[in-house]
Fold this sequence. Notes:
Elements: H1 7-52, H2 63-98, H3 109-124, H4 133-137, H5 144-170, H6 183-199
Helix pairs in contact: 1-2, 1-5, 2-3, 2-5, 3-5
Amino acid sequence: MAETAPQNDIQPLFMKKRYFPCWLTAAGGAVLLGVTVPVLLACFHTSFDWQKSSRPGFVGGGPLLAVQQFLWLEAIALFWCGPGALILSLILYSILKNNNVGMTTAESPDGILRRGRWTGVVLAFVNLPGYLSGFVLGWEKPFTEVRVALLFITAGGIAGSWIGWQAYRFHHLEAGVMLRYSLTTLMICVFVFGALLTVFAPGKN
């Protein structure tokens, strides 16, 4: 009878094969989402002010000005917040991946997504360069502190959910790269997104 390979000889090969793409997609997606979504909200809120004033290096108006504004703020946000977001993403991914997830416990995908989401929100406030967003929104305006806090919460929640799914995927070969979601989750996301657009509406004090 042919001998079968011990389980402990197979598992390390499996872990090494899955480790690289999971941490890469976790960190890359978290940085992209965690930076881009707050920048979009900030651009949306300040678009009215930008259209009224003349900024050096910006030409045209309407959609052209909006695109220039977004690309400019995105580059600055990636420069200042990108490194911190990358480090925090890898830390969160390592915590979720190594915390007895998937293979050793019966934790559901919803469980790890929930932990990733809330831990991501807490860690987002540690990325200190993100507080510079207050100068873009205008510290002199009322409720800017609330909007800045919402930017951190949004960035941390989205990035944390993405990282949580990649940590779950590390232990489950059958899981795809993209997050799985239910109709209820989709409806909640639509409601939250609508509320954020209301808070960051142009011209709001």
